[in-house]
Design brief:
Blueprint (H helix, E strand, L loop, with lengths): L10 E4 L8 E8 L4 E4 L4 E6 L9 E6 L2 E2 L3 E3 L21
Antiparallel strand pairs: 1-2, 1-7, 2-3, 3-6, 4-5
Length: 94
């Protein structure tokens, strides 16, 4: 099992997919599936049948899990973590 760097309660930014650029708080992490549920991201419509709990039934909006590789941890108010190993090109004086 891989150690995940994202835990519930962390603020993350979506870096890939339909919700790219959106930030939110992680509410739950599924380690075995490498997925997380982020508040307000990846909303899906779930059709519910009428039941004793919900006699009306209907369509309910809820968050679906998103893959960990599509998330980047946000440190406070700073920018999201940049790609490691990236170097700036500078001209050297000869």
């Amino acid at each position: 099992m891989i150690k995940l760097k994202i835990k519930s309660g962390d603020t993350v930014k979506v870096i890939a997919g339909d919700h790219k650029g959106t930030t939110g708080t992680v509410t739950r992490v599924y380690k075995e599936k490498n997925k997380a549920i982020v508040e307000g991201v990846n909303m899906v419509s779930k059709h519910t049948k009428p039941s004793a709990k919900n006699p009306q039934g209907g369509i309910v909006k809820k968050e679906a899990p998103i893959h960990i590789s599509n998330l980047s941890k946000v440190e406070g108010t700073a920018k999201p973590a940049a790609a490691k190993g990236a170097k700036k090109e500078t001209k050297k004086a000869k």
